[in-house]
What does this fold into?
Amino acid sequence: MNRENVRDRLIHVIAILAEAMNRIEEPEEVLEYFLKTCMEATGADSGSIMLYDEEEEVLVTRVAIGLNKDAGGMRLSLGEGVTGWVARHVRPRLIDDTRTADDYVRIREDLLAEVAVPLINSDRMIGVLSLDAMQVGAFSKDDVTLLEIVSNLSSTIFVKIADNRTLRMRDRFHRVLLEISRILPRSLSLQEFFEEVMTTTQKAFRIHRSTLFVYDRQEGLLKIVASVGAHTEESLQVTYAPGEGITGTAFQNRQAVFIPSARSEPEFLNRMKVVNDNLDLGFFCCPIFSNQEVVGVFSIFTHKQELDPKELLEFLQILGSMISQAFAIQSLIEEETRPFVVENIRLRQELSRKYQFGNLIGRSELMQELFEKIRIIAESRSSVLLTGESGTGKELFASAIHYNSPRKDMPFIKINCAAIPENLLESELFGHKKGSFTGANADKKGKFEIADGGTIFLDEIGEMDLGLQAKLLRVLQEKEIEPVGGRSRKVDIRVIAATNANLEQLIEERRFRADLFYRLNVIQLTIPPLRERHEDILILVHHFVARYAKENSKKIEGITPQAIRLLETYDWPGNVRELENMVERAVVLSRSSTIDIDDFSEVLAHIQVSGKEKMLDLAPARKEPAATAAAESGSLEANLLPGADLDDLDGRAYDFVIGEVERRLIQYAMKRTRYTKTKAAKYLGINRNTLDKRIRELNIDY
It folds into this structure.
């Protein structure tokens, strides 16, 4: 090529380098651009830049053009070859014919001339620029002068850009470590901590995959407990023995290892099938400690980094110490919570026994058919919709379905949709991320995430807001939840919903989504009200009497037949819940070892008001004073008001009739208790002051 004079060429090269400095931010790119420019300015056929490693006292090739593959990883000691000579003496050297130079390190046979100049910054040698040509005497002293000037300028540019890069990287390190330090206090699970930390790290650096191994003492193997990245099920079963491969060696030697090229490392076993002919990755492996003892290893695969390997190694070692800290925290928590875990297992076993089908109470034909259906659907994964009046025991049936299903060892989460305000229900169900709304000071798991793998019971589903119904539909369809302010994640949940409302009517009123109804209504179970299965009352009463007698340390031998007939006559609008409350009250207040009809005064009062008293044969159960009082007062339903009088009560019939009923009920109670107000108030289930007040207001003469 035509040569320009030194001055013109120098101006040209400086202009090119100045332009490059304005747009290039990475040191490696500066070196490559600098080398190309020098080759073009001198007509060189090949070239390289080697930087000096002060710790190892060697020159390491950082950029090479026109040389063979071996030149890319070449290392020279000071004084070795022409390049090493230049580095030792810190002055340029020109070789017109390489065949006459005894210390020339020949990389290509056809290279016959070489020029090498030191790279100097602030009187410190940082490396050497070497250019080669295939023609003898290809370089001149003018070329040496040009390269010396340009090399010094380029060295300054390189060092400044490298320093800026180091500052940027350290800033990035600090930001990542700050974020990780925030994760550590709020995460009690080692697996969750590792996954969140490595996800954060992957966003900042070019990390391909990361894996956490924990040592299994019983089997003597390192096993995977957490991973981030595209792992296959097969790769997650990979294990290492101590001393086996890079992973086992890092564990055994208690030292971190970094390999720039996993493919070229003989000790790298590649059991996870990550590295192949088309993909070469760096590999880092760091031991995890707990109380000075090695308990595991964490490893990552990295793409080619713009980071200095030493800087990356230092950062990853810090990361390893944080993971060690998380491991130690989890070990402490496990130690502290072990008694609770044992107790939890015991309670789960107790719940499983409690909710066995044999423990569900009901001998009526309706209940036997229902039990048979539950036995069948418990084994399935389908959604279940429980309908029925309030108090029929829908939650009990939901529990029975869960604790007799394959999910019985997983969480069973109950939530009442009507008991939580609408503005909080979404966060309660699906969780939220810190800062997603005012007051969200920390991440919170929702009920669906907590129930992952188990069952969630949504009571009063008809009260759910339409917007939340759409989110619930997504859970049922896609098996996916989306926390407030967070990303979607997959969950494995069985949904059991319950309602005492008519959902089909709510659909017509546009208060419930039809598509959600059909998703929930895969299996519908209707729990019959207690009034439709009076034959179950006897065994329910005996069950509740035994339970509450034991809870209250009372000796109750049984319940009279007359009391049973009384309870079987009542319609029980509150269903089993009302029956249970009545029996509990009777047990607590009973002064006898046998519960009698007098212990259910409230039920008796309702029956008397409703006109069903004639259906009962209560004479054998009545004590003499009570029987006399009843005879004197007469039945409450008898001739309460003449029909003609009702026509004259327009606008005040309700108050008049209710007042009359209350008047006669108080008179009956007073006579029954021989006009003892305290006993009468107790019989009526009201306060003594309330009784006095009503006697005055109703002008009752006793």
Q: What stands out?
A: The chain is about 45% helix and 15% strand.
